[in-house]
Every structure is written in C-alpha cells, then in structure tokens.
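User: Show me an example of a complex going from sequences to structure tokens.

Assistant: Sure. Here are the input components:
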Amino acid sequence: MRFARFCGMTALGLIAGTLAAQAETKLTIATVNNGDMIIMQKLSSAFEKANPDIKLDWVVLEENVLRQRVTTDIATKGGSFDVMTIGAYEAPIWGKQGWLVPLDDFGADYDYADLVPQVKDGLSVGGKMYAAPFYAESSLTFYRKDLFEKAGIKMAEKPTYAQIAEYANKLSDKKDGIYGICLRGKPGWGENMAWLGTAAVAFGGSWFDEQWKPQFTTEPWKETIKWYLDVMKKDGPPGAAANGYNENRALFATGKCGMWIDATVTAGYLYNPKESQVADKVAFAPAPITDANPKASGWFWSWALGVPASSKNAEAAKKFVQWATSKDYVKLVGESEGWIAAPPGTRMSTYSNPEYKKVAPFADFVLNAIETTNPAKPTVKPVPYTGVQFAAIPEFQGIGTTAGQDVAAALAGSSTGDQALAKAQASAERTMKQAGYPK
Amino acid sequence: MKTKPRDKALMTLLGWGVAFIVFFPVLWMALASVKTELDAVATPPKILFRPTLENYAEINQRADYLKFFTNSIVESVGATLVCLLLAAPAAYAMAFFPTRKTKDILMWMLSTKMMPAVGVLVPIYILAIQTHLLDTWAGMIIVYTLMNLPIVVWMLYSFFREVPKEILEAARMDGATPRQQLLELLLPLSLPGIMSTALLSIIICWNEAFWSINLTASKAAPLTAFIASFSSPEGLFWAKLSAASLLAIAPILVFGWLTQKQLVRGLTFGAVK
Amino acid sequence: MTTSTIPSPKAAGFSFRRAQSRATDTRPLLWPSIFVLLIWMIVPLVLTLYYSLRNYNLVDPTVTGWAGIDNYTYLLTDPSFLTSVMNTVVLVGGVLISTVVFGTLFAVLFDQEFWGQGAARLFVIAPFFVMPTVAALVWKNLLMHPVNGLFAYITSSLGLGVIDWFTTMPLFSVGIIVAWQWVPFATLILLTAMQSLDREQMEAARMDGAKAVARFRHIIVPHLARPITVVVMIETIFLLGIFAEIYVTTSGGPGDASTNLPFLIYKTAILNSDVGGGSAGGIVAVVLANIVAFFLVRTVARNLD
C-alpha cells in the first residue's frame, strides 16, 4: 500500500514538473569538475538572471565518468543532456556523425574571428563548428629555477629531448626527495599515451600511416619509448607507472620534481601560491623537440561545449553555449574571479588584454604554444587523421588505452620497451581489422 | 566466565589496537577532510595542523547535498520495499511448496547476479530510454530491485525455512488459507529476518556506483554521483574528496552501526542464531 | 542456456522440503510473483545474448549486422583473456582466504571481554559501509602513494625504503583494499556466530587443560563452519564483480597485471565502444561464474544444512 501511495506521489510530482516546464525551459548541462568549469557553474546565475525563462540544471562529474556518460547518451539518442562538455577528440567524430547541432550562427557579437584558429578548426568538420571552445591547451616544459641554479645549469630556449635527459640527471637528488623529471605513467589514452604520442611526433613518428597501419613498431616510437624508460627509471619518481596528470601536479606543486612536461593550463595553478608551494620558483620552456622534427610542438587539446542533436531545447542550449564561450564571459570571470582564472587558450582578445597579461606572465608563451600546434597536419609524414596526441577516430580510445597499459608495464619493469610496443602493435592491428580499416 | 584483570587489560590493548588499524583509513580520511589541500598531500604527513571547514563550505556551495541525499534515501528504500513485495511470495512458494524446478530457479537467480554491469550498460540504457525511465526515481528503483532481487529471495527463502513447519501445519488444520498463513503467521514470525534483509538491501543500493551514475543525470542522481563530482581529474582534490566522501558515507555508517545486530541476522541467511 | 551449467543443489547437499500434497492448489496464487521475477531476470540476459551476436559499435553507426560468433572468438582469442580469468580467480581466492582468516581471528578477539568492547566493534565494522570508489581513492592517494602516502613516509623513516605498491604488486595491492572492505563483513557475521557458542563447553575444555590453540581448533572452528560458508558464498558473488577498486587504482595495469574479467569487459564495451564484444563478455562471465559457483557449491555448501 505504501508503495502505491509512493507511486502516486511520484506521478503527481512528474505532472507538476511537466506543468512547470511549460513556463520555463530547463537545461541539463553535463560538465567536468575541473576548476574552470566550476567557475562557470558559479557564474551561471548571471545567465539565468539575463534569461529568466531558462533554468539551469547541472550534472558535474569526474572526467572519465563524464566521458562515458555523455558518449552513451548521445550515441543512443538518450536526450538526457542539453549541453555537453566534450573534448577535441569527440567533437569532430560526433560532428561527422550528425550527433551535434552546428554552432555557426551565433552572430556578429560572438566574433568567430577572435577564436584561436587552431582551436576552432579542431572543433569543426567541413568548415562547420560543432562545439564552442571553452578553454584550450598545449603542453610545455615546467621547471624549477632554483634547482637549475643549484645544479649550475641553464634551460635551453628550445630544449631537445637529449638535453632534457641531461638536465634531469643533474637535477635529481633522490636523498632529498627531488626527482629530476616527472612524467605521466598512468595508463590511458588521455594519460601516458597523450604524453608519449606527443613525444613520438617530436621523434618523427605518428599513430598510423596513410594506409591506417598502426605505427608502434616503427623507429620513432622505439626511440621515444627508449628515451622515456631510460629517463624515468633513472630520474623519475617511484610509482611513476601510477602517476597521471593529477598525481604529477601534486608532486610538482609540493616541490618533488625538477621538471615536468605537461599541459599549459597548469601554469595558472603552479603560479598560484594557494595551490602550489613552488609558485615563486617555477619557470617554463617549450615542449621538447628532436632533430627528426625540429618544428614539433606540444600537444593540442580543448574542452568545448556542444549541443546534442537529441536535445529538446536546442535553441535555449545554444543561447547558453554562446554566453559561456563569449568574450563577455571571459571578462566576467576576469572581473569576479581575478584575471588569472580567465579561461585560457580560446580567444585572441584574452591575450591582448593588458589585465590578463599583467597577472599571467606565461600568457604569450601559452598562446604561442597553442598557435604552433597543427592538429590538421600533425606529423612529419602525411597521415590520414587529425590530432597530435590522439587520432580522431572512434577506435583510437581503445587502442590508446591498451597501448598505454603495455607501456606502463614496461615502465614498471615487467617487460621491455620493445616488447610493449610489439604488444601494442598487435592489439592495435586487431582492433583496426575488426573495425574494418582501411575504410 | 570471568576474565582475569591482567588478561582483560591485554585484550583491551589488542582489541583497540586492531580496531584502530582497521578503522585507520576512515580516520585518516576524516582528518584529511579538515585539512587544506596542500596539508593533505604534505610529506611528512601532518598530524598537527590547523583544522579548517573550508572544504565543507566549498562542497556546500558547489552541490546540493540534500538533493543527492534525498535521492539516495528514496531509491534505496523504494527498491528495497519493491524487492520485498516481489520476493516474499516467491520465497514463500519456494520454501513451502517446492517443485522439481525450485532448486534450479534458486541457483539460476544467483547466477544472474554474476553478470558484470559494464557488459550490459548499453542494452539497459536503450531500454531505459524507450521506457522513459532514464533519470527517474522509478527507473533507479527498478534497476536496484533487479539487482537485489536474487539476494533478497535467497535470504527470505532461508528465513522462511527456519520457521517451524508445525506452526503452519496447525494453522492449516484450523482452516487458515495460504494467504492467511503467509500474511498473518509467516510474516510476523520472520519479521526480524525480513528487517535484516531490508537493511542489507538498503546498504547495497546506497553504495552502488555504476548504475546510479550511468542511468541518472540531475533529477535522480544519488550520493554516488555526488562523490563522482568531487573526484576531480585536475589538481589537488583529496581534502575536498575526503569531505564529500565523509558526507556520503556518514548516513549509512550511522545507520549501519545502529542496526548491526539485525544486519548480522540477515547477512548469514539465518545461519547464525 | 545458463540453466544447463547450474549445479544441482541437491547433489551439493541441499535438502528441500517435500511439497505438501494439500498445498498444490496454492501454487497458482504464488506463481505470478515468481513469473514477474523470472521476466525481470530474463530480459537483460536475452538482450545481452542478442547484442553479443550483433556487430554494434556505439560510436560508429556504420558497423551493423549479425556477427555470428565473431564477438566470442574475438574475446576468447584476446591474449589478455586468460590472464584476466586467472587474475579474477586469484583475486577472489586471495580475498576469500584472507577475509575468512582475519574475520575468524577478529571474531574470536572481539568476543573476549574487554573495556570498550562495543565501541571497538563498531570501529572494526565501519569499512564495510564505505563506498568502494571512496575506499580505493583513500588507499591509493593518502596511504599507498609512494611519494605522498603515509606508508611511504613510515617505511622510509624506518629506513626500509619505499614500497611502490601499485607498480610492483598491483594485484596484491588491489587485494588489500578489497580485503579491507570485506574483513569487517566476515568479522561481523562470525562474531555473531560466536555468541551462540556453548560457553560451558569452552569452560569445561579449559578446566580439562586444553590449550587456547586446541580450544580454537576443536571447538571454535567447527562451530564457525556454517557461517564461514555463508561468508564465502556471499563474498564470492560480490568479489567476482570487482571493478571500482581496479578502475580507480591501477586501471588494470601495469600491462594486464591487475586486469580482471569485469575490467576486460569494461575495456571492450566502454573504451572500445564495442557493445557486441562487451555483451559477449557479459555472457562469458556469467558462464564462468556458474562454473565457479558449481565448484563452490560442491565444496562448501554441504556445511549449509
């Protein structure tokens, strides 16, 4: 009986909900819980005030969980979300699938020309933008000025991988708990393979060749993995095979690492004394290169907001996306949260803003790092895909993660680098064959 | 049996030592929840520090704890009630009127529990869309019911089997219908068992973290989703996560402690008397 | 298809009550609820079986059609498959043994009279109520982390060096976390079973000069046989599906050193978006679980009656 009453109440609740929904549009927004998105959630009351007929409902999740959640929903046309936070990997794949609403009619106010071209292109298919960039990043080399001085060395203007290895060796002081270099080791396509994929490009390699054949057993990959294993075993922290972005950030912020090659977006945190014990000692240099690819850049990534085609409130959703990725929003963040918290990497106007430049000594450097990436032509040899640290095909996620596990095994010492690559190659070939490549 | 004071002191030391070690991770988490993020990852670990409530303040600002809490309560209690309603008659039938198929059915039910959730996500998701049960209380209650039904049936079955057959026999002689036997005799007799089954079911639902995150968005998301929003991929998050975790497990911890006696009876299929 | 692999409880030592002849007329009243139950259990199974025979990639709509047994052959020929089955068995077995051993010892300990016994018991039970994800995160980051973790600090200040838990012994480390969650469960049940122990018998044995170890072996252990069986049965069901702890700590690695069957299926179904393959994995897991259940029931279930 109690259950029947409970059902009745639920039904009443649903009806009440439907009635209310006619008066106002309710948008469900799925987003990751990183700092910039949390600020967006906080500031969104300004949007609700300006649009009293729209109410926002937030679903905030951890990155991997969010990715799985929105992928399932959009692929099955579930319609649970009106706005989704997606990455530079998903946007072109889903856009091509017709799963996202094109976002190319935001009008003159939006100023498309102000968007950093690499960022906009990375989110477009056939010239149509399918997700609006919220923030973008490349990678660079963070290092500790004080430790470099102590070791009597100087960071090169454009360091090579060989130089980085040398520095790492000199910086290491394991007795004092200082490790020359911290790099990602945790398996995952967005973790260790994002780092290794970028390095492999700098060593002249790629994920696939033009016939879609996986390239793990080619020379550049072998050199990459050899460099990585040598350096990490000699000068890396213990437990490196379980360290992802997060763990490394905690290590660097607590003063355990001499160098760290990772996302540009971290600069804002490392310079923030509330988040980092090394705020006054950190400096940066470009992502390393090699002779095989002297033009190599860091990786390229962006977080963006997209509107799924299955959304029943696409118009209102677009309104929100436009607001959250506009120039005005950047200004709003700058004024209410401090300019150092302004979402980086997406708009030229942010980088020409003197107030931002004043608090962010790394501003030009970061913009330059992003502008030198070329996700459309990422590698020395021509390839059939886009993306630096990833290849924008649905199969990549699985291939990258499996390869990541093999590499982590090598880092943990349970296999050699070449064995790991051979294993990664075999499983990548299996996956590609199953998916019917070359298409 | 009287214990010598010396032995008792020794046992006290040993007992509390073990309790401390086992409880330590929870304690350490509770400590981390009142540290600043930098203190939480500091080495050497800080035992003495200035406690702060800023993590709790930030959590309160970022998420509506009460909403997640309500959803957790409604869904776990709701599913448990449905489970009991469905399972009680079935367990009754199997315990008192078995057929040749009964034993197969029982084992088969248990075996369906062994299907890994990750393997069936998409079929279930599509089903939920088509039945409009995505992100609703009803949907979550159905899924949890499905999930716990085998265990609940098993437990009730074994409780019912403990009820002395003679009592039912006597009732039958007095002309009680099977329905009366079930409702007026069996249920009151096995009430402790039913209570403890319910408690276990609630705890399992409360801690379930796969379906609850994947089949809800905002309306029906329980505390596990609340946790997932603080397990951050960026930056220092351990203090905040500890605080959020403590908030999420606190109700069930208190609940579990209050009811541990009943719980034991349920958990052992009545094997422990 | 699953019924064929199900062990007969009778052979395993169950005994069921005979149906009362006068009761047969009640069955039509009771079968509807069983019927609902069956439907609710069959639907996901049938759906999974269907998808396991289809080509279905979640993010690539061009992949369609019947796959026959391709999904199964793909899964079974995966080099990680055997490893993951072995890892599953080791993990389940290891955790079962350690929880039963520690559970029994703790149960005996907390059965003794001492000051603050009630409160101490509560503290020991607490880990069972902690969500698996939370447990894993706390252990990984606050305790076992080789640089920032408490264990590293303790061992290195004792001059023992640092143990790199998740790299050098991933499966063991995951096992520790899981065991931490389930030892309280075993303790709780066995502790309650201790309450019904015949105290006079214990006392008499003591008077007769039986040593504590002998009393433990000949009185306590036999008394606990049945509740231990219950612990083993319930735990096995949950341990076969361990996922969150691995996902949070090692992501199945390094290599596939800590990949169990659920995690392998996760990689197939979610990371590769291969719904067909994932479904096949689900079916294979159910079949394997039934095989485990068969042996389990044969070896331990006779204690149940």
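The lines above are the inputs; the final block is the predicted structure for all three components together. The first helix of chain B runs from residue 5 to 32.
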